[in-house]
Amino acid sequence: MALIWDGTTNDRASTSDINGLTIDTTCAVSACGWCTGNTAVRSPFGISNGSSLQFELLRRSATNDLNAFGYSAGPFFTNLALPASSSEWWFWALSISGTASGNAHLYVWTSGGGWTSSASSAALQAVSSPSVIMWGNGPLLYSSEMWVGKTLGLKIWNAVLTESELQAERLTLLPKRQANLTHAVPGVGDSSSAALRDIAGNTWSLTGTITYDADLPAGVSYGAILSLPGVQSITASGATPKVTLAF
Fold first, then answer.
1. Maximum Cα–Cα distance for the chain, whole Å?
2. pLDDT by residue, tens only, the chain of 247 residues
3. Distance CA 174, CA 152 (A)
4. Backbone torsion region of residue 87, taken as left when φ is above 0, otherwise alpha when ψ lies between -120 and 50, otherwise beta
5. Cα gap 215→174, rounded to integer Å
6. pLDDT digits (tens, 9 = 90+) for 226-245
7. What is the DSSP string of 168-233?
8. Minimal CA–CA distance to 151: which of 23, 31, 242?
9. Neighbours of 166 (CB within 10 A)
């Protein structure tokens, strides 16, 4: 069951469980997830300090491309092309080893274009004391940029994953790499509480409403991850996985 963000209200999921993540001169952060949608000036993911500092993915206004921005800063990368169809699934990934130019990489995979990448061509805006991570609307400071489309499989690490590691993460909604994992929300389920369950133990809050459908990216499995605390088993039946937890 993919999460559907309709973009008509300030819909977003957010967590204040930061788990030591930061974007600064010596940081180590990686993140990835699945999306459909290509509406202009909309953001599926962001990290903010709640005031003037933020880092967000953004679909550009003039072209059908993905980039990243800060508050009144950016773009940080060369634009990466998104599918022309708003219903086609695509995968994004980030690895950040510092704010200096060249120390961050943005990746996009599409069924038509394959795997594309860009190293940062400008210094990233630092977010040294983030207070919120957002999914379905990247910037806390721009409520008009809520995502229009579907999202699945948000994963974040306090580490710099290699390109090959991020390519492997594209194939499963659950994380293949468990070391340094800070957030993992498969985004599947037929209720808000189920869809926003973070198997890394974080609490996510929903602003607005979300709906669901059974559409999943072709060739993507739920995966298996039994070594995280509380996870006993994961099974799948049709489009709905069953996660057995014990706390």
1. 48
2. 689 988 876 788 999 999 999 999 999 999 999 999 988 888 999 999 887 788 999 888 767 899 999 887 899 999 999 999 999 999 999 999 999 999 999 999 999 999 999 999 999 999 988 999 999 887 665 567 889 999 999 999 999 999 999 999 999 999 999 999 999 999 988 888 889 999 999 999 998 888 888 888 999 998 875 444 444 444 444 444 455 444 3
3. 10
4. alpha
5. 17
6. 444 444 444 444 444 455 44
7. HHTTBSS-S--TTEEEEE---SSSHHHHT--TTS---EEES--EEE----TT-B------STTEEE
8. 31
9. 26
- Which residue type does 26 have? T
The tokens for 115 are: 């795997």
Cα 222 to Cα 231: distance, rounded to the nearest angstrom: 14
- Residues with Cβ within 8 Å of 226's Cβ and at least 6 positions away in sequence, in order, are 232, 233, 234
Tokens of 122: 């400008």
Tell me: cis bond preceding 75? Omega within 30 of 0 counts. yes
Under 8 Å between Cβ of 179 and 66? no
**Is 37 in a helix, a strand, or coil?**
coil
Token look-up 């993915």 returns: 57
**Three-class DSSP category at 134:** strand
Say if residues 17 and 205 touch (Cβ distance below 8 Å).
Answer: no
C-alpha atoms less than 13 angstroms from C-alpha of 18 in its C-beta half-sphere: 16
Cα–Cα distance, 192 to 182 (Å, whole number): 20
Tokens linked to 191 = 């209720």
Strand, helix or coil at 85?
coil
